[in-house]
Each structure stands twice: as structure tokens, then as C-alpha cells.
């Protein structure tokens, strides 16, 4: 396929750059170069700038879009705002990441305690698997598997 740099390919590049803000900025830079080479630069810039503002708004980017009047002229401002947005999202994501990590660690710890208690009940008592599973909160199959491992 021919890699032709058209405005349409640039727009598709922006739409498909959702995996990172850096990729989005690179796609915007490609569109700006295409606009700069267009004979109807001002008209195309106005149309694409309006589209970019809508697209970024749909992505949830509040990056000073009201101040964005020209993609060509305001490229540096847009780049700075996208970078600030990346930093803001990273900072906002940290507590969520900690919370998810804490929850996962807590759940794994609870599971480990259940397994340890079940193991001790298997080794030290004559309780059946059903009763141990009910007391500890594990599946009967899991307790049965633990019992078979203890016997080997």
C-alpha cells in the first residue's frame, strides 16, 4: 500500500492514536505538516481545528480547548496542554493503582489464611472436607485437593 500523506490519513491517524497522549501528539504534528503544505491552508486549518477540538472533547481532554483557534499556530500550546493532561492523569491514577493493589493484596492474604487454616484442620482434626470448607470459606473441591496433597 502506498503511504500517502493526505489529510484524511492524518485524521485517521489522530482517531487511532487513542493508546497514548504521546501518540496523539505525534498524529497531530503529522496533520499540522499536511495542513501547512495545503494550498488552502487557512480554510483547512479552521476545519481540522474544529474537528480536533470535538475529538479531544469526546476523549475527555479538557486541555484549554476554548483557546485553541488554529492547529498550526497553537501547536505548541496544544502539545504543552496534552503533556499536562498526561501528568494529571498519571497523578490521578496513582491513588487508584494503590487502592487496586491494596485490594488485590488483601484478597490474596485472606485466601492464604483460609488455606493455612484449612491445612491445619486437615492435619490436626478428623473433620470432613465439607465441614472444613464451610468453616473456612473455601470450595469443597479445594479442600479435597489440599487433603490429597497432605496424604502424599
Question: SSE order, as H and E?
Answer: HHHHHH
Unreliable runs: none
Question: Please, what is the oligomeric state?
Answer: single chain
Strand content: under 5%
How much helix is in the residues? over 70%
Number of helices: 6
Biggest sheet overview = none
Kindly state the number of beta strands. Answer: 0
Overall outline: rod-shaped
| Ends apart, CA distance between termini | 62 Å
Q: Return the structural class.
A: mainly alpha
Quote the average pLDDT.
81
Q: Using only CA atoms, what is the Rg?
A: 29 Å
Summarize the structure.
The chain has helices at residues 7-15, 21-37, 41-58, 75-124, 129-136, 140-151. With 152 residues, the chain is mostly helical.
What does this 3D model show about the protein?
With 152 residues, the chain is mostly helical. It has a domain at 1-73. The protein has 6 helices and no strands. It has helices at 7-15, 21-37, 41-58, 75-124, 129-136, 140-151. Helix 1 (7-15) runs antiparallel to helix 2 (21-37) and helix 2 (21-37) packs antiparallel against helix 3 (41-58). The model has no long low-confidence stretch (mean pLDDT 81).
Write the topology of this structure.
Layout: H1 7-15, H2 21-37, H3 41-58, H4 75-124, H5 129-136, H6 140-151
